[in-house]
Design brief:
seven-stranded antiparallel sheet, binds zinc ion, binds adenosine monophosphate, 22 strands, alpha+beta, 667 residues
């Protein structure tokens, strides 16, 4: 037993170190695959020996616990807000006030930090272990979201070095742009309302009830403030350095400066640089560096006197709403877009702004002719944040959402529980037809080089390319008819189309663009049903029993295959030689099995030993006869020999049940 416990602790230590190397220092020294192997090993030991469980184990990162309602707890030290300003004059006045308190002759140093735009968090550590995470709440009390916070990889669960026995550290949980766009892409695909900005999404994410969903959100956390009774640091900058040594992700952008002019330089430099950051900041925080001086300065009712946030002006303008246009996407979703009188915002001319959906239009109560405020964040399309009430359009020009599709004139529908209106005329609504071809050709599906979005539009309007099946009967002369297409690029295009026939079944399935069937679901479906024919004939019950598939996805699949046009389409694609079956050998290699050595022992319920051996080899694993230190997994069936079992345990080899094996192979 002691051996096991030691092994578990060793694994945890190693994994904490790798986490730190990867997430904080950006210097991983093992591959993701090796990391996953270690995590899996630890996980299976922990499952098997629950007596050694630890709430701060690296395995807690994947979440799983569900919190119905978060406990509200008092902060040990209140969480203040920050004084803030948009002007340099205010900063100079602030310095004058500091001097009045501290003395004219006293030298004041400042730390300059970025003001991260996310959700603030206070983390408590005891004996180097994360014990609690509280949201800011009202500053006095916050919500305990500890389980959720543990899934954020940049937050250490276990510290290193000479950390104090008990302390708090504060920072900001943020969602980088990339993750924000990724989440929204998925939501768009699911017909769900899009999130407005990364900050709201970050705050919403950490309050989700299911921590395993939080684990899937690519959240990040920067820490910048220590609180405690005996911290052994005397300045803010030193606190940052210490926190970094203990394993926290501390912003490298922080600077120690010794004059207000240097503060201005920092502000100016980031005014431009912030546009290239992978996440959003809304300003700079300037803090008096000396903690003794901070104490002397104290707090107002709301904020410390020793800090000041300089906020960059939101890049906003006001202009005239000239009209509303409607865009129809691949799935038939209709998105309203504001047409604006062109206005300059931070160097670019803005003519359009996103209006998201009909609820948003109603909420704003928009009228054509209104003067609206337009803001440009990091989002690609600017947004309308409000209406200038002093300059309204006429009441009779109230914007009414369309009743019919602007492209094909069929009636629009908004389903119960959805925010988006849809044109249901999938088969004959041009933007949907074009969108489907573009999706099929796209990088994540068939990845056909040389066939750009614009070319598809041209070919569609020429009547040469009406659906994805037409791709495979395109002839060189037809494409050459288009202007701009050189002989060479047409040849490349045709080669690209030909090569797409080698793409896997799951890519073909994803490429079909069945509503709600994203990349992951397509993979699961192809693994489970193995072929298009079997999938097409699956019952709704069989579909619902599949991982990742719920009612909504299941009925969408049923509807798709019930449509005779889709059946024809699939028949043609099949005749053209596209892959309609899950390929065996090689293609099935599973990262958790690749090159791993398995020993199987005993008899199994769902597999004969031969079938189990075959399955492991298909997934890329190797079979050995006896347990040794090189063995990665033992699969234990009924009546497994006790000596094998003891040997495996002593060597710390993961012992899987038949069900564990099945779960692992599905992951
Ligand atoms: P406000 O919400 O405008 O009152 O600004 C105060 C908030 O800014 C704090 O509660 C923090 O969540 C956040 N903040 C972001 N970056 C920093 C930073 N570097 N130092 C202090 N607070 C920060
Ligand atoms: Zn339509």
């Amino acid at each position: 037993m002691e051996v096991i416990q030691k092994k578990i602790e060793e694994l945890r230590k190693t994994l904490h170190e790798h986490n730190h190397l990867y997430y904080i220092l950006d210097e991983p020294n093992i591959t993701d695959f090796e990391f996953d192997q270690l995590i899996n090993k630890l996980k299976s030991l922990e499952d098997k020996y629950p007596q050694f469980s630890d709430l701060n184990s690296p395995t807690q990162r994947v979440g799983g616990d569900v919190t119905k309602s978060f406990e509200t707890l008092a902060h040990r030290f209140p969480m203040y807000s920050l004084l803030n300003t948009y002007s340099k004059e205010d900063l100079i006045q602030w310095r004058e006030r500091l001097r009045k308190v501290l003395g004219e002759e006293v030298n004041i140093e400042y730390t300059c930090e970025l003001k991260f735009d996310g959700a603030s968090i206070s983390l408590s550590y005891e004996n180097g272990k994360l014990i609690q995470a509280l949201t800011r709440g009202d500053g006095i009390k916050g919500d305990a979201i500890t389980t959720n916070v543990k899934t954020i990889k940049t937050i250490p669960l276990k510290l290193q070095g000479d950390y104090p026995h008990l302390f708090e550290i504060r920072g900001e949980i943020i969602l980088p742009w990339k993750g924000f766009h990724m989440i929204n892409e998925q939501r768009a695909l699911n017909g769900e309302a899009l999130y407005r900005n990364p900050r709201n999404t970050a705050s919403g994410s950490i309050k989700l009830q299911d921590s395993s969903l939080v684990a899937k959100r690519p959240l990040n956390c920067f820490l910048y403030s220590l609180k405690g009774d005996d911290l052994k640091v005397s300045t803010q900058f030193q606190a940052l350095q210490k926190a970094s040594e203990w394993g926290f992700k501390v912003p490298k952008s922080a600077r120690l400066v010794s004059s207000i002019d240097a503060v201005f330089e920092y502000i100016l430099a980031w005014e431009e640089k912030r546009k290239n950051l992978p996440y959003e900041i809304d300003g700079i925080v300037v803090k008096v560096n000396s903690l003794a001086q901070q104490e002397e300065l104290g707090y107002t009712a709301k904020a410390p006197r020793w800090a000041m946030a300089y906020k960059y002006k939101a890049e906003q303008a006001s202009t005239l709403l000239e009209g509303v246009q409607y865009q129809v996407g691949r799935t038939g979703a209709v998105t309203p877009v504001a047409k604006l009188f062109p206005v300059e915002i931070s160097g670019t001319t803005v003519k359009r702004a996103s209006l998201y959906n009909s609820d948003q239009i109603d909420k704003l109560g928009l009228r054509i002719g209104d003067t609206v405020f337009v803001e440009k964040g990091g989002e690609i399309i600017p947004k309308i944040t409000g209406i200038n009430l002093n300059n309204r359009g006429l009441l009779e020009n109230q914007v009414q959402f369309l009743t019919h599709c602007p492209e094909c004139f069929s009636f629009l529908k908004r389903e119960e529980g959805e925010v988006q209106h849809y044109c249901k005329n999938e088969a004959a609504c041009p933007p949907q037809q074009i969108g489907k071809i573009q999706h099929f050709v796209g990088r994540k599906a068939m990845n056909i080089d040389g066939l750009g979005a614009e070319t598809i539009v041209l070919l569609f309007h020429e009547g040469i390319l009406k659906n994805i099946a037409d791709l495979y009967s395109l002839r060189k002369e037809q494409i050459l008819l288009l202007d701009r297409m050189a002989d060479k690029s047409v040849s490349n295009l045709l080669i690209g189309i030909e090569k797409s026939k080698e793409k896997s079944f799951s890519k073909v399935l994803f490429g079909l663009g069945i509503r709600f069937v994203g990349e992951t679901v397509a993979k699961t479906l192809s693994k489970t049903f193995k072929s298009m024919d079997l999938l097409a004939s699956a019952s709704i019950e069989e579909l619902i029993l599949t991982d990742d598939v719920g009612d909504r996805i299941a009925s969408s699949i049923i509807d798709f295959f019930a449509d005779s046009k889709n059946k024809d389409l699939i028949r043609i694609l099949k005749e053209q030689g596209l892959k309609m079956e899950q390929q065996h050998v090689q293609l099935n290699i599973h990262p958790a099995f690749k090159e791993k050595r398995f020993v199987i022992s005993g008899v199994f319920e769902q597999f004969s030993r031969k079938a189990l051996t075959d399955e492991i080899e298909l997934l890329g694993g190797k079979i050995a006869n006896s347990v040794s230190s090189k063995t990665d997994y033992v699969i234990a069936g009924n009546g497994m020999g006790p000596s094998k079992k003891i040997k495996a345990e002593n060597l710390g080899v993961s012992v899987l049940t038949e069900q564990d094996f099945i779960d692992l192979s599905k992951r």
